[in-house]
TrEMBL record:
GO molecular-function term, one example from the UniProt record: metal ion binding
Organism: Aminithiophilus ramosus
Binding site for Mn(2+): C103, H105, E138, H166, H368
Cofactor: Mn(2+)
Keywords tagged on the record: Hydrolase, Manganese, Metal-binding
Domain Peptidase M20 dimerisation: 191-275
Official protein name in the record: Amidohydrolase
Cofactor, how bound (note): The Mn(2+) ion enhances activity.
A Pfam family the protein falls into: M20_dimer
Length: 403
């Protein structure tokens, strides 16, 4: 039996277990760094596989190591959920009000546990595999990966290549998407405070209306990307919150705006904050107020390594058939903090189809939706792809010493 047949078979054998892990994690979602419950489930499962497990890495991260010598590759999953109310109606829906695994990180964690189970069964390995479970992926601009890197997750032994996946409702179950180069965007954050001066609502001439200024700032900022970024460069700027005012008949003295800035190109990423600041301040000043602009650099773009992607494609074609592989033409402008790992180590980040063939692509709930429910049939495929990719990367490192 070939390696790929073994991996597929073993992953199928673990299907029930993967589903059970996923459902248990789904019921008890943790937010940001506070994923203790999930982390202890993960650590217990890894220990039961006989792996060398370390907890509390970069806060609440968990790392396990398989194998004792040779080159090392790493597989990573994220463990955190979102602060939103679940509306899936699933029997294993979130038991914690206002928290939900709406980005599929419960599935990522379960699939990686599956890969650890598959690979550790009878491992006679030529090399080592690190299983990295990280908190706080959803916590832009900081994220959870940098703290784990700072805690040495990529060292001792040094990691030569890395892989991770994201469930992708835009793709049918059984399909997998990848691209060389950037697959996800840089994700930065912008906070604006518009300041005016309060007065009685009947006498606006005695104050400076921060709400009217903010309205102009919001409109003006919408032209920055469309007029300053070349049509061939991708970038998007969206404001997510506007907060201001205290009473119906008081001229507001302050309005706070929060937004996100996505880009793929380093040059665009560098000039946009300055441009946005200049426009916001200019408009506010012209109207007699002012505007404070705080720009926080968040996740860098997630950039896939060419050699690792080429190997991954062979694995995916082998495991799922060549037709399953979808070449992603354009990156998405979503952010992903796996990018911090991919900056340090040649990596592949791929999308795992999780929309049942019977579902309507136009109405299937997307990521971050209160009804998001990935197809569980995709999970053994994700496990097989992670395990198969790790083995392929180790083969290459063993044969050639590098990718
Ligand atoms: Zn997310
Ligand atoms: Zn996610």
């Amino acid at each position: 039996m070939s390696v790929s047949e073994t991996v597929v078979l073993l992953s199928r054998k673990r299907e029930e277990e993967i589903r059970a892990w996923r459902r248990a994690i789904h019921r008890r979602p943790g937010l940001g760094m506070n994923v203790e419950e999930t982390a202890s489930l993960v650590a217990a499962a890894l220990e039961s596989m006989g792996l060398d497990v370390r907890t509390g890495i970069g806060g609440t991260g968990v790392v396990a190591l398989l194998g004792s010598s040779g080159p090392t590759v790493a597989l990573r999953a994220d463990m955190d959920a979102l602060s939103m109310r679940e509306e899936t109606g699933l029997p294993f829906a979130s038991e914690i009000e206002g928290r939900m695994h709406a980005c599929g990180h419960d599935a990522h964690t379960a699939m990686l546990l599956g890969a650890a189970a598959v690979l550790s069964e009878g491992w006679e390995g030529r090399g080592r595999i690190k299983f990295v479970f990280q908190p706080a992926e959803e916590c832009a601009p900081t994220g959870g990966a940098p703290a784990m890197i700072a805690d040495g997750v990529l060292e001792d032994p040094d990691v030569g290549a890395m892989a991770a996946l994201h469930v992708w409702p835009g793709l049918e179950t059984g399909r997998v998407g990848v691209r060389e180069g950037a697959i996800m965007a840089a994700s930065d954050r912008l906070d604006l405070v518009v300041r005016g001066r309060s007065a009685h609502g009947s006498m606006p001439e005695e104050g400076v209306d921060a709400i009217v200024i903010a309205a102009q700032v919001v409109s003006a900022l919408q032209s920055v990307v469309s007029r300053s970024v070349s049509a061939s460069d991708a970038a998007v700027f969206s404001l997510g919150t506007v907060r201001g005012g205290c009473r119906y008949n008081v001229i507001a003295d302050e309005v706070r705006l929060e937004g996100t800035l996505r880009s793929l190109d380093a040059r665009v990423r560098a000039f946009l904050p300055e441009k946005i600041g200049a426009v916001a301040r200019g408009v506010a000043t012209a109207m007699g107020g002012d505007c404070e602009v705080l720009y926080e650099r968040g996740y860098p773009p997630t950039v896939n390594d060419g050699a690792v992607v080429a190997l991954f494609r062979r694995v995916a074609a082998d495991l799922l058939g060549p037709a399953a592989l979808e070449e992603i033409a354009r990156p998405t402008l979503g952010g992903e903090d796996f990018s911090f790992f991919a900056e340090k180590v040649p990596s592949v980040f791929f999308w795992l189809g999780c929309r049942p063939a019977s579902a309507d692509g136009a109405t299937f709930p997307p990521l971050h939706n209160a009804r998001f429910a990935p197809d569980e049939a995709a999970f053994p495929l994700g496990t097989a792809l992670l395990a198969g990719t790790a083995l392929k990367l180790l083969d290459r490192l063993n044969e050639e010493g590098s990718l």
